[in-house]
Amino acid sequence: MKVASRAHVPPFAVMEILAAANARRAAGEHVLNLCAGEPSTGASEVVRQRAVELLTSGDLGYTEALGAPGLRAAIATHYRTWYDVDVDPARIAVTTGSSGGFLLAFLAAFDVGDRVALARPGYPAYTNILRALGCEVVELPCGPESRFQPTVAHLEALDGPLDGLVVASPANPTGTMVDAASLAELAAWCAEHGVRLVSDEIYHGITYDEGAVVATAAQYLDGGAVVVNSFSKYWAMTGWRLGWLVLPDDLVAPVDALAGNVALCPPALAQHAGVAAFSPEGYAAARANVERYAASRALLLERLPELGWTHVAPADGAFYLYGDVSSSGLDSVTWCARLLDEAGVALTPGTDFDPVDGHRFVRLSFASSPEVVREAVDRVVRWQATLGA
């Protein structure tokens, strides 16, 4: 029988590494897993307690396709509080994780054959979803010279028309950010050229420079921008599968229609419990998580000379360290496989994020505790020392 060509997308390698690490753990090995971008703490107590209450007495039937009104209102208040941006709750679509948000946004905004640009290295699901939908992905090679982020100069250098641009700040796998001025330049360029800007902001809140101004593309909705966000990272609610879109007016009705047909509505339990994430207790728990990531990040930056990695991306935000390990003489896939096999540490090869230069890079997630990160670095340093023996 026929299998659709759109289904032939590469698997997400990090999931394969995670499975291998879990298999080793099941066999009794002590494996340190720093390959997945998943906070180790899980949802805050206030969210979990609200879920318990809902399970015993709550209405967990279908919500509106765009999400429960109470949650959409809470998200709108979040934008006013954090960014001083007024967002009409009618422009907010609650989604089944940010993954569901990207699918809905891409379905609503792009046709088969449309050309959509994004940074390389970058999150592979952008590319795979777009190609599965019949779009042409235009990779922008973004290295240390642009802090691994796209610029207007990248866009001006392209041949042919463009229909969309995906920007992530802080980015996966690099952790680098687009500052407010650069985001404004990108948004203005997109508006002038009729290009749909899609801004991945799922790591907002996870930053380390107290003076950093984290900008949101929600300021540019009238220019056609789309914002994607999630409860998975800042609020550590990965398995709850809860995200949201902030939409320009022209995409609200299309996303509403698509959402109702694709999934009817996001998970009701996660939606109603998710409101509690915006409580003082919910924000406090999230801030405490960021403090843990900051401690792990500081440890990593202090020990970079021991690691000996080069071209390390500035870890402005998120919880990743992305660096070049090619001085080892191994490609990143072999490097990660041997590290897991010989030292019991799981990292992700850069080939997941960059098909051209990723064979040189690896990604380390420091979403675990500082104690786990410290032990992992000890193991990596000891193991690397054996490579030259």
From TrEMBL:
It holds the Pfam family Aminotran_1_2. InterPro entries: Aminotransferase_I/II_large, AspAT/PAT-like, NHTrfase_class1_PyrdxlP-BS, PyrdxlP-dep_Trfase, PyrdxlP-dep_Trfase_major. CDD domains: AAT_like (cd00609). The keyword Hydrolase does not apply. It is an enzyme of class 2 (transferase). Its EC number is 2.6.1.-. Keywords: Aminotransferase, Pyridoxal phosphate, Transferase. It comes from the Bacteria. One of its GO terms (biological process) is amino acid metabolic process. Its cofactor is pyridoxal 5'-phosphate. GO terms for molecular function: pyridoxal phosphate binding; transaminase activity. The keyword Transferase applies. Residues 30-380 form the Aminotransferase class I/classII large domain. Belongs to the class-I pyridoxal-phosphate-dependent aminotransferase family. This is Aminotransferase. The lineage of its organism: Bacteria, Bacillati, Actinomycetota, Actinomycetes, Micrococcales.
